[in-house]
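R.M. (postdoc): so does anyone remember the format we settled on? I'll just put the structure tokens first.
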């Protein structure tokens, strides 16, 4: 189930970053979800690295266990890099979109404010 959720999140992030429309609420939700996923992947990566260090220090550890952790890290690191990159891009684009929206709102209000004076 988690694989489906993170796939859907990454797909939607790519869509929004590809200029598909999104509401302010959706942008906030996507940012929160991507941040949570990045933190989850970071924690899993750190846990796997600690486990690998412990296995490497244990002369009785099996190569199968070490190989399993190495494979896990090989899956986690690219996923973390991807979601972190998408999150950074989303945050940057969101700031740009908000700035543009605020500038447009300011320009729309200016003529009305002048005529009321």
């Amino acid at each position: 189930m988690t694989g489906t959720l993170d796939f859907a999140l990454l797909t939607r992030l790519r869509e929004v970053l590809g200029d598909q429309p999104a509401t302010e609420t959706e942008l906030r939700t996507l940012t929160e979800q991507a941040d949570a996923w990045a933190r989850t992947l970071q924690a899993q990566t750190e846990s796997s690295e600690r486990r690998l260090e412990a296995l490497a220090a244990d002369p009785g550890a099996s190569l199968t266990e070490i190989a399993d952790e190495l494979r896990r890290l090989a899956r986690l690191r690219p996923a973390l890099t991807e979601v972190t990159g998408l999150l950074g891009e989303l945050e940057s684009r969101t700031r740009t979109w908000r700035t543009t929206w605020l500038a447009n709102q300011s320009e729309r209000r200016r003529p009305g404010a002048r005529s009321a004076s």
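R.M.: ...and that's the designed sequence above, right after the tokens. Also worth knowing: Residues 41 and 80 are 6 Å apart (CA to CA). DSSP finds three helices and no strands in the chain.
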